[in-house]
Design brief:
The chain is mainly alpha-helical. The protein contains 7 helices and 4 strands; from the N terminus they run E-E-E-E-H-H-H-H-H-H-H. It is about 40% helix and about 5% strand. A hairpin with a 7-residue loop joins strand 3 (about 25) and strand 4 (about 35).
Length: about 190
């Protein structure tokens, strides 16, 4: 192809040497699909007929701040702002043994998973665990990074059947709803 069909860019490196750089890039996964970008210039005349194939950049390594993946106005962000979940530890501490058994899953995570289930109408803990594993907003709310395995549904289920009493569960969720309601009033400027 002629140089006019594939425009090139001259680039000066750190040492001050000039190099010619192609204005197109080839994706590793899609050997026949060329990706063009405005930062490299416009396509030449006649090139606009090229068909861009589906994105196949699935194996890229990216550095991500999970907080940036959650929209600023997301419901879970509002709840997290309104409710101080660390107070939950006081409510459930008597239900845990200090020196016997294996380390537990954070009880705040367990309650937050059930809260997610009810907020988003998920039909079961199994489905909730699947959704939590795949949803960045849910992971952020629970405090789990993208590569960490989230709790299995059976762990959540076991704790709610055998560890947390009905009285404790009612008390915790009544407290969460109260805190969220008061937090809403504080953030909307309607009161106290």
């Amino acid at each position: 192809m002629s140089s006019s069909a594939w425009p090139e860019k001259v680039h000066k490196d750190i040492a001050g040497d000039w190099h010619t750089v192609s204005r197109f890039s080839l994706s590793k996964k899609s050997g026949w699909s060329w990706a063009f970008s405005d930062r490299y210039g416009r396509m030449g005349k006649g090139d606009e007929k090229m068909l861009e194939r589906g994105k196949m950049d699935r194996d890229l390594v990216e550095f991500v701040v999970i907080d940036q993946l959650v929209p600023k106005e997301h419901l879970l962000r509002k709840i997290d702002t309104a409710v101080d979940f660390t107070r939950l530890y006081e409510m459930v501490e008597p239900l845990y043994c200090e020196d016997n058994g294996r380390p537990s899953i954070d009880p705040v995570v367990l309650f937050k998973m059930v809260l997610i289930q009810h907020l988003y109408g998920l039909p079961s803990l199994r489905r909730t665990a699947e959704e939590v594993s795949a949803n960045n907003c849910y992971r952020w709310f629970l405090g789990y990074p993208l590569q960490e395995e989230t709790p299995h549904f059976s762990t959540v289920s076991y704790n709610f059947r055998h560890r947390f009493t009905e009285e404790t569960v009612d008390k915790v969720f009544a407290w969460i709803l109260s805190e969220a309601a008061q937090g809403h009033l504080r953030t909307s400027g309607c009161g106290g």
